[in-house]
Every structure is written in structure tokens, then in C-alpha cells.
Specification:
The protein has 662 residues and is α+β, with helices and mostly antiparallel strands. Helix content is 26%, strand content 33%. The strands form 3 sheets. Strands 1-2-3-4-5-6-7-8-9-10-11-12-13-14-15-16 form a 16-stranded antiparallel beta sheet, sandwiched between helices. Strands 22, 23, 24, 25, 26, 27, 28 and 29 form an 8-stranded mixed beta sheet that branches. A hairpin with a 7-residue loop joins strand 14 and strand 15. Helix 8 crosses helix 9 and helix 15 packs antiparallel against helix 16. The longest helix has 30 residues.
Length: 662
């Protein structure tokens, strides 16, 4: 019995797995005694591989994990070791993916033959041009044999060569990995070399990149490591650009969307919200050259309002355009120091025009404003606690600015209208943003005879409001899109409303709902809607989410969509969660919707559409017909452009009177 045990032990010693040196660093817990130490040693892996010559490096990369069979790149991808993945791909390019040498030989043969065919065609056209003979499109040209036949012929003498597999490699590329035992689709861990040279390694589900994976764009050298859904970059992930720019954050269907941080090649950084691949929402942009900071609201890559922190304890609060201050604002000097003071003013054509200098205080912020040729102080009522930044936003709010211009000449108003006090009593924001929707200002004024003006003392300033009636059509069928409560509360009936939007003075449509629809391909803009009428909002029994004033526009949008889009519309809408899911998109019959909605404004808008349909005045389409989608490999997001930042020296220019006053 003892002899048999000794024989078994001897066989076990002979079959003991030899762990490659590289895996002792990657997975030290699997080594005997744990001599290397706990956790992956990424620095030691890079140092170990960096000391190898090119051929030795490739041999090391081919050494798989003895227990899992994974390559080093597969392991690093699944563990999301970003630094190691990026180093491996930049160092070894395609070789880091460790494809089978024989299949690579076939793949490269196709690449070679295609280049030869392209060169032959180029030489033929050049010869015609040299001889002055234009190409005759009706002339019959000799058709060369298909490239796959040429490649198959070269492998005809190789034992075990499979012509069908050779052709598949040339036309589809290479796939090595797990498959579904029943459907034979790519499912599980695998890696692909695509016909265009791009490579992917990671998780698959039913032939789609799904889960964690790394994609390398061969032509540009860009690298993405992170989560995938239906072949798209989705959820969290990191993108590395060849110029050194990198992004880490959230994605939605191949676009940056949500919280994320982008580091530019210059060292500048942006950290904050992204929408549809652009800086939009609250964020902070830091300029590496002078460490100045722009913090506040961004819209489609443009810094629009917020705080500009400069060196020396100087800060500026106001509105911006392309990172340059515009309109009314405030400089705060000696921030956080004793003797801090502010200077109100306005930027006109890039020139700073200073107003009053005041000692800084947080208790009752105010802002100097020129109204009817005199300086007034814009502040808040005692019951409203707002910041200096909010007051500046009110001063730059377009409807308020238009009103100030309208009353610029008191004599132009019957009886005269002389304003002597402005107090902000309430503000309303676009949900989830720092964009003003409406402002209420208490105005104290008197007539030419120094009598208190009898007109209302409170004014509501708001951008034009509108409700949108979007209708999608396909092969004679049509549905409308509206908003619906996920769980209607008591008394809300069906709790369905039309989409609420605002219209800027320039005609731009704004709404988080429109931004959400844009992510699935429904792009509603001011240029592809029809204005039906402006009607009174009346008394609404259920006001949310509408915040309408005395009147609102009714906008109509319609588009012919593809059958696939039409049949999956409800699934696409179900994936959208505007305003945190308080409202959900739904699609249905417009007539049925109008008979059930508890909101008067929605009912009135539907009634207008119905009358226009009966009169035959509505167009069959307000937007171009939707084109069928094509499923190419994912195109890497371009690095966002660097802003043209205003030099700090210009911002620090301050009249000498400011220092003298201090």
C-alpha cells in the first residue's frame, strides 16, 4: 500500500504545473508560499517585460495562466488594470492579443493580396492618364479572380487546410474563444481580429461585445477598456487617445454621458457632467498652464455661467461664452482673506466696465445694475436666501434683460415709470441644472409726479413655454410620444402629459426630455417643428411637469421612421429616465391620449392638432426620413477641443481706483 502511495506522489511531482515568471507577478496568491506578496504586482510585470527583447517579449505574452488559460491581456482586461492594458497594447499592438500564428498568416496573406490589387488598379489608372486616354465606362474589363481564390490556391498543398475557413478569415476576420454550444454564437470570453485590423478582447454574448472588454483601433491607436452593451461602449470605461488625452467615466451607447473626467494632452482637465459626448451640466475645467479654474454650468462644450478662480485670491462670477466673460459679473478680490472686496461691472465687447466697489459680505449679497441710466442694487427679499452667483444669473437672464431694455426710457411709458428698487422674490430652475426657468422680481417704481406707480409690483420673467406633440409614422401607422407617471397617484387619472419645452429668445428649444429623445435618434429642433398656435394655459387640474405662464406655444413634430425603429419604439423609450425617472416616455394613439389626459394644456394642444389634421394644414413630415442604421465597428470619440481660454492677465486688469478705495 505504501509503495502505491509513493508512486502516486512521484507522478504528481512529474505533472506539477510550472508557473511562468510573469504569472507569479500577476497572480502571486497561486504561487507556493506567496513569496512575491499579496495582490497583482503591476509595476513588476511592466518592468519584467520591458527588459525583454522584441522576440522574447512576444514569447512571454504567449504564456497563458496555467489554471485559467487566459492570456495576460485577457486577465488585465477583466481585472480592469487600465495601466497594464494600455502599456501592453501600445508596446505590442496586435501581438498583445496573441492570435494563432497560422490563422494570422492567412489573415496577413489577404491583407497582402488586397494591397497588391489596389496597387495594380492604381498603376492602371495612372497609365491611362499618362497616355491621355480617359477610362471608358462601357469598355469590358478583364475581371480578376476573387482574392479569396488566390489565397486558397496558395494553401492548396498544405495538409489539413480548409478552404471554407480560409475564406471566412479573409472576409470576417479571426475569432478565438468560447461559443454557445447550441447556437454557435460568440458567447463568453473571446477575442477578435476584424478585417479592418481592429482588435477586441473580452466578454461576448450572442455575437455582441457585452460585458467587460478592450477595443483597439488599429488605424488611430486609440484604446478603450471598460463595459460594453450591444456592441457599444456603455456604463463605466476608460478611453485613451494617442496624443495622451484620456477619459474615464460613464458612457451611453458609445457617447460620454454622465459623470466623467477628461485629461487633455496639455494637462488641462475637465471633471463633471457629460451629455451626448459633450461637456454639459455642472463641471470644473482646470487650466494646467496657470492653474486657473472654471467651475459652473456647461452646455454643449461651452462654459456658460459660474465661477472663474484666478491666482492671488481673485475670483470672477458671471456669464461666459467660449470661456470668455460676457455681460454682467462681479470680481471678488482677496478671497478668503481679511479686507475682501467686490467690484460689479459688465463686459462689453471684451472690455471690462467697472461699477461700484463694495466690501464683500455673505449675509446679504447684492449686485449693481444699470437701469434707466442709474445704478441700482439687485438683491433678494428677506425671506429668500440666494447666493451672489444666483443674482448674477438673474441679471443675465434673457427675459429680465429684455425687460430692462424695454423700460430704458421712462418717458416712453404713459405716466412715466421710474424704477428705484429691484428685489428677487423667487427663482425656478430647470430640474437637475443651474439653468433658470423663471424669476419673480418685486419692482418699486414711481411716476413722473413722484407718486408710487399703481401697476403690479411683482413681475414674472420666463422664457417662452411650449408643449410638443411628436408623432412618428411608419407604413401608414402612427403613434404619439408623451410622458407618463410610472405609478400614478390618487386623483391623477392616467397621469399623462405632453412634453414640456422652453423656447429661448433666439428660438432654441430646451428640455431634458428632448436631450433624452436625441439619444435614441429622435432629434427635435427649432428647425423641424411647426408652430400651431399660442393659446392660454387656462386652469390645469394637474400641473406637473408643466410650469407654464399665461400662454404657451403648441409645437408639432412628425417623422417617418424605419420599421425596426417603429416596432421597438416602446423598448427604446423604456430605457430613458429623464428627471431621475419621475416621468417616463410612452407611445400610443393621440386620440386616446387626449381623451384621458388630466392636463388642460395637453388636451388643448391635442385638440389643435386634431383640427389641423381635419383642415389638411399639417405637413406629412417636418423632419427628414430616418435612415436605416448600419452596424460598423465603433468609431472612437474624438478628443474634445481645448477651449480658447482668456489670458489671466486681462482678467486681472482693474482700475487703480479699486485699490485706492480699498
Amino acid at each position: 500500500m505504501g509503495d502505491q502511495e509513493e508512486e502516486v506522489d512521484a507522478e504528481a511531482d512529474e505533472q506539477q504545473v510550472v508557473i511562468p515568471e510573469i504569472w507569479k507577478f500577476a497572480d502571486p496568491e497561486s504561487t507556493d508560499g506567496g513569496a512575491v506578496g499579496p495582490g497583482p504586482q503591476i509595476g513588476k510585470i511592466v518592468k519584467y517585460l520591458n527588459e525583454k527583447e522584441e522576440e522574447e517579449l512576444l514569447e512571454e505574452l504567449k504564456k497563458t495562466n496555467p489554471e485559467t488559460g487566459q492570456s495576460l491581456l485577457m486577465w488585465a482586461t477583466l481585472q480592469q488594470k487600465f495601466v497594464l492594458v494600455e502599456w501592453l497594447v501600445k508596446k505590442a499592438a496586435r501581438s498583445a492579443f496573441v492570435f494563432d500564428d497560422k490563422e494570422l498568416g492567412v489573415y496577413d496573406k489577404f491583407v497582402e493580396k488586397r494591397k497588391e490589387r489596389e496597387q495594380e488598379e492604381k498603376e492602371r489608372l495612372e497609365a491611362l492618364e499618362e497616355n491621355g486616354e480617359p477610362e471608358d465606362p462601357e469598355e469590358e474589363k478583364e475581371t480578376p479572380p476573387p482574392i479569396h481564390e488566390l489565397v486558397i490556391a496558395e494553401y492548396a498543398d498544405d495538409e489539413g487546410s480548409n478552404p471554407y475557413k480560409i475564406r471566412a478569415i479573409g472576409e470576417l476576420g479571426i475569432y478565438q474563444g468560447q461559443r454557445n454550444a447550441i447556437t454557435n454564437t460568440k458567447t463568453g470570453l473571446g477575442q477578435s481580429l476584424y478585417p479592418n485590423g481592429d482588435c477586441y478582447i473580452g466578454q461576448y454574448s450572442d455575437n455582441k461585445r457585452q460585458g467587460i472588454g478592450c477595443y483597439w483601433w488599429a488605424s488611430s491607436g486609440e484604446i478603450y477598456i471598460g463595459n460594453w452593451m450591444d456592441n457599444h461602449r456603455h456604463a463605466s470605461g476608460r478611453m485613451l487617445h494617442p496624443d495622451g488625452g484620456k477619459y474615464y467615466g460613464l458612457w451611453k451607447m458609445d457617447e460620454k454621458c454622465g459623470k466623467g473626467r477628461f485629461t487633455y494632452p496639455t494637462g488641462d482637465t475637465y471633471s463633471g457632467d457629460w451629455v451626448a459626448g459633450k461637456r454639459s451640466g455642472q463641471g470644473t475645467y482646470t487650466v494646467a498652464a496657470d492653474m486657473s479654474v472654471f467651475s459652473g454650468a456647461f452646455h454643449t462644450d461651452n462654459f456658460v455661467t459660474g465661477e472663474w478662480r484666478l491666482s492671488g485670491g481673485v475670483r470672477y462670477y458671471g456669464a461666459f461664452d467660449q470661456f470668455k466673460p460676457v455681460g454682467k459679473g462681479v470680481f471678488l478680490h482677496r478671497f478668503g482673506q481679511e479686507g475682501a472686496f467686490t467690484q460689479d461691472g459688465i463686459y462689453t465687447n471684451g472690455e471690462w466696465q467697472p461699477f461700484e466697489i463694495k466690501r464683500a459680505t455673505d449675509s446679504s449679497p447684492s449686485f449693481s445694475l444699470s437701469v434707466q441710466g442709474k445704478d441700482l442694487s439687485l438683491s433678494a427679499t428677506p425671506d429668500l436666501k440666494i447666493s451672489l452667483m444666483t443674482l448674477i444669473r438673474v441679471a443675465n437672464f434673457r427675459p429680465f434683460e429684455d425687460w430692462v431694455k424695454k423700460i430704458e426710457t421712462p418717458s416712453s411709458i404713459p405716466g412715466g415709470y421710474h424704477v428705484n428698487s429691484l428685489k428677487v422674490s423667487s427663482v425656478e430652475w430647470v430640474p437637475g441644472t443651474k439653468i433658470l426657468r423663471s424669476v419673480t422680481v418685486k419692482v418699486s417704481a414711481f411716476t413722473d409726479n413722484q407718486v408710487r406707480h399703481p401697476s403690479p409690483t411683482s413681475f414674472v420673467f420666463a422664457e417662452d413655454n411650449a408643449v410638443l406633440v411628436p408623432v412618428l409614422r411608419c407604413n401608414g401607422e402612427e403613434v404619439a410620444i408623451f410622458l407618463k407617471r410610472p405609478v400614478p397617484s390618487a386623483g391623477d387619472l392616467d397621469a399623462s402629459v405632453l412634453i414640456d419645452v422652453t423656447m429661448s429668445a433666439g428660438g432654441e428649444l430646451r428640455s431634458d426630455y428632448l436631450d433624452s429623445l436625441n439619444t435614441i435618434g429622435i432629434n427635435v429642433t427649432s428647425g423641424n417643428v411647426v408652430k400651431l398656435s399660442k393659446i392660454s394655459s387656462g386652469e390645469t387640474r394637474f400641473a406637473e411637469p408643466h410650469s407654464l405662464c399665461s400662454a404657451f406655444e403648441v409645437l408639432f413634430f412628425t417623422q417617418e421612421v424605419t420599421p425596426d425603429f417603429f416596432s421597438t419604439l416602446n423598448d427604446r423609450l423604456a430605457g430613458l429616465t429623464p428627471h431621475g425617472g419621475l416621468w417616463r416616455f410612452a407611445a400610443g394613439d393621440l386620440e386616446d391620449f387626449s381623451s384621458k389626459t388630466p392636463v388642460t394644456s395637453s388636451y388643448s394642444a391635442c385638440h389643435l392638432v386634431k383640427k389641423a389634421v381635419e383642415a389638411g394644414t399639417l405637413p406629412s413630415a417636418t423632419s427628414e426620413k430616418m435612415r436605416p442604421p448600419t452596424p460598423p465597428p465603433p468609431v472612437p470619440e474624438p478628443r474634445p477641443e481645448l477651449p480658447d481660454v482668456l489670458p489671466e492677465e486681462q482678467a486681472l486688469e482693474m482700475p487703480k481706483e479699486a485699490e485706492d478705495e480699498d
